């Protein structure tokens, strides 16, 4: 069933954190103990090579922008990226990707009854124009651009809708038609299954 994205866009176009363990970035109730997160691999969530490349690129960009590497590298949180590609323009020497992506951090903890929990922490949703240089079959990121409020993000798509930077009605319709929910909820289900984590409660409220 198609999901409406408008509320999601309005809520997620800026970084937000739960009311929390301030440094870690996710809600840690009293009498609970933080757990180290098991590994996560992008190949669990898609086998599309373009999406895999973008997931890697945007996760590296997120870490550089937010300075969150020590929490992610240590396993205090896991980082999940769910992109949607609108258009790829490619020449012999360059490739430009127009996409949106939801990037989420999740943390794990255990309560006093020894029940495990996974909790959504810091979250972002944004448009990205990624420019790659192509040389000898190698692709290197040249630049990543996030549009301003009144900027046309994809040529011919118009300017942004209702204050969402870069996102237009046409883009929303395309995402709806492709059942893109701008969520990592399904990814977390896969993550738990692949790591054989059972009896775990997932908290995704913003």
List the helices and strands and how they pair.
Blueprint: H1 6-12, E1 33-35, H2 49-66, H3 69-73, E2 77-90, E3 94-110, E4 116-135, E5 138-145, H4 169-177, H5 185-194, E6 200-203
Parallel strand pairs: 4-6
Antiparallel strand pairs: 1-3, 2-3, 3-4, 4-5
Total helical elements: 5
Largest sheet: 6 strands, mixed
- How many structural units, i.e. domains? 1
Structural class: alpha+beta
Number of strands: 6
Shape: globular
How would you describe this structure to a colleague?
It is a single chain. The chain is 24% helix and 32% strand. With 206 residues, the chain is an alpha+beta fold. The protein has one domain (6-203). A hairpin with a 5-residue loop joins strand 3 and strand 4. The longest helix is centred in the first third of the chain and has 18 residues, at 49-66. Mean pLDDT is 86; it is low at 1-20.
Features:
alpha+beta, 5 helices, about 30% strand
Quick recap:
The chain is α+β, with helices and mostly antiparallel strands. Helix content is 24%, strand content 32%. Mean pLDDT is 86; it is low at 1-20.
